[in-house]
């Protein structure tokens, strides 16, 4: 099993590091053809409009659309916004998970914070790094909400896709990445 990490912009190196630290084979994906060699893909946090422009510039969208129907994608923060059905500003999102994203819901960069998040598959609170984090509005009752923060869903999944408004790659806690890997392994 190989996990790809979209490496066009954002914090992709931290995702690679946490996977490396836990002996999970991974590659940095900079060309759409590389999607053929991975079982799952992480779209990292960063700047959602920049990542989308780069996806279009490097003709990733058709390959990603095809990939999303067969394989697994995990989007953190900006990656989650990109995967949303829609966002609260002018942006054509990918529509891989039926949520609406409200960008920078908890404030700008200066308002970033760390707080405990209770996740339904982890016994102890998870340290959530919220950096210009989006709020999600559920658009499909079939989605699984795996964590709430102040009554707001912050970790959500459907059959093939997982999104978080916080950054688990900034911790040493492998729980959420491991959950995503479990989603992949259940299909291979």
Q: How does the overall form come out from the CA principal axes?
A: globular
User: DSSP helix count?
Assistant: 5
* Largest sheet strand order: 2-1-3-4-12-11-10-7-8
Q: Low-confidence parts, pLDDT < 50 over ≥5 residues?
A: none
Q: Could you report the average pLDDT, rounded to the nearest whole number?
A: 94
Q: What's the order of the H and E elements?
A: EHEEHHEHEEEEEEEEH
Rg to the nearest angstrom?
Answer: 15 Å
Structural class: alpha/beta
Percent strand = 25-35%
Give a verbal description of the structure.
By secondary structure, the protein is an alpha/beta fold. It has helices spanning 12-21, 48-57, 61-70, 78-83, 175-185, and strands at 3-6, 26-29, 40-43, 72-76, 84-87, 97-102, 113-119, 126-130, 135-138, 144-149, 152-157, 161-164. 25% of the residues lie in helices and 31% in strands. The chain has a nine-stranded mixed β-sheet with strand order 2-1-3-4-12-11-10-7-8, sandwiched between helices. It has a three-stranded mixed β-sheet with strand order 5-6-9. Strand 1, helix 1 (12-21) and strand 2 (26-29) form a beta-alpha-beta unit. The radius of gyration is 15 Å and the shape is globular. The N and C termini lie close together (8 Å). The mean pLDDT is 94.
């Amino acid at each position: 099993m190989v996990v790809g990490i979209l490496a066009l912009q954002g914090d992709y190196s931290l995702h690679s590091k946490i996977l490396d630290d836990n002996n999970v084979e991974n590659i940095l994906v900079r060309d759409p053809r590389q999607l053929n060699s991975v079982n799952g893909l992480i779209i990292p946090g960063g700047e959602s409009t920049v990542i989308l422009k780069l996806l279009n510039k490097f003709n990733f969208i058709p390959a990603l659309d095809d990939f999303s129907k067969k394989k697994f994608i995990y989007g953190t923060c900006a990656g989650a916004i990109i995967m949303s059905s829609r966002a609260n500003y002018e942006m054509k999102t990918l529509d891989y998970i039926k949520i609406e994203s409200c960008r920078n819901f908890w404030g700008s960069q200066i308002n970033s914070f760390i707080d405990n998040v209770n996740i339904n598959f982890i016994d102890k609170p998870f340290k959530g790094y919220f950096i210009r984090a989006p709020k999600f509005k559920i658009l499909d009752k079939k989605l699984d909400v795996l964590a709430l923060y102040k009554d707001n869903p912050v970790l959500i999944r459907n059959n093939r896709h997982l999104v978080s408004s916080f950054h688990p790659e900034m911790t040493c806690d492998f729980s959420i990445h491991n959950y995503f890997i479990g989603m992949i392994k259940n299909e291979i």
